[in-house]
């Protein structure tokens, strides 16, 4: 499988950047206390979903079991990146119950994906539910890392709630002055709930400046 892609297009020249992020996660996890990692950004289109899918893909090289869950219940798009149907998924599991494994897609050795499922009328309620907490607890037994995609933090409160469920948070920042300015506010709101921000990823860095991704370690 080509590991790094953007809407189906191969991005092999970016692999190195994603691998660095994966390696930094492993360093941050020296005490094995990081399992659930949330990715977020302030605004839409900063590259959260692209980054988390590609990160999940390269993390399989660590010989770890990865589960990627789409917790963006407003504009989910993980399923599009993997060409998966979005029937079932997380909201399907929460409504129909049963075995969560029936709502998971295997993508590659070591990589499973749970799509968002049908967009619910009450996303905040679902994100705040005990059922989500329980699901994360249950899947934790079977995976080394659980990656959580989220909606934009400056627009909805879901990521703040999700941050309280995650062991670590990575903030994606689109390369523009506004996005950098707003990112500071996002960091503040994450810190207010004691989120463990382990890094930021500067995304969409102009290609002419050589590196498209830049990972900063706190
Ligand atoms: N590093 C990048 N270089 C070029 N295009 C990118 C990059 N990261 C994301 N994109 C594109 O930007 C758009 C938004 O990305 P997406 O990952 O869906 O953002 P978000 O999940 O934050 O809303 C998509 O069309 C995606 O293909
Ligand atoms: Mg997204």
Describe the structure.
- A hairpin with a 2-residue loop joins strand 5 and strand 6.
- The relative contact order is 0.21.
- It is built from 8 helices and 10 strands.
- The strands form 2 sheets. Strands 5-6-4-7-3-8-9-10 form an 8-stranded mixed beta sheet, with helices on both faces. It has a two-stranded antiparallel ribbon with strand order 1-2.
- The protein has one domain: Rossmann fold, CATH 3.40.50.
- Helix 1 (15-28) crosses helix 2.
- The protein has 218 residues and is α/β, with parallel strands linked by helices.
- Helices cover 35% and strands 21% of the residues.
- The protein has helices at 15-28, 48-59, 78-81, 89-96, 123-127, 130-140, 158-163, 177-192; strands at residues 5-6, 9-10, 36-40, 66-70, 105-108, 111-114, 145-149, 168-174, 197-203, 214-217.
- The structure holds adenosine-5'-diphosphate and magnesium ion.
- Adenosine-5'-diphosphate (ADP) binds at residues 6-7, 41, 44-50, 77, 203-204, 212.
- Residues 6-7, 41, 44-50, 77, 203-204, 212 line the site of adenosine-5'-diphosphate (ADP).
């Amino acid at each position: 499988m080509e590991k790094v892609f953007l809407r189906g297009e191969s991005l092999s020249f970016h692999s190195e950047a994603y691998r660095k992020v994966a390696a930094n996660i492993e360093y941050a996890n020296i005490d094995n206390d990081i399992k659930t990692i949330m990715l977020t950004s302030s605004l839409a289109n900063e590259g959260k979903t692209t980054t988390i899918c590609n990160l999940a893909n390269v993390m399989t090289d660590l010989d770890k079991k990865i589960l990627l869950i789409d917790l963006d219940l407003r504009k989910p798009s993980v399923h599009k990146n993997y060409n998966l149907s979005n029937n079932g998924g997380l909201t399907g599991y929460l409504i129909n119950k049963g075995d969560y494994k029936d709502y998971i897609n295997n993508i590659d050795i070591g990589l499973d994906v749970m799509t968002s499922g049908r967009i619910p009328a009450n996303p905040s309620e679902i994100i705040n539910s005990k059922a989500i907490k329980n699901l994360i607890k249950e899947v934790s037994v079977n995976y080394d890392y659980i990656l959580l995609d989220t909606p934009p933090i400056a627009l909805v409160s879901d990521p703040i709630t999700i941050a309280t469920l995650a062991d670590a948070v990575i903030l994606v920042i689109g390369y523009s002055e506004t996005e950098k300015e707003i990112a500071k506010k996002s960091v503040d709101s994450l810190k207010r709930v004691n989120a463990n921000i382990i890094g930021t990823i500067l995304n969409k860095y102009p290609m002419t400046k050589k590196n498209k991704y830049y990972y900063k370690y706190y």
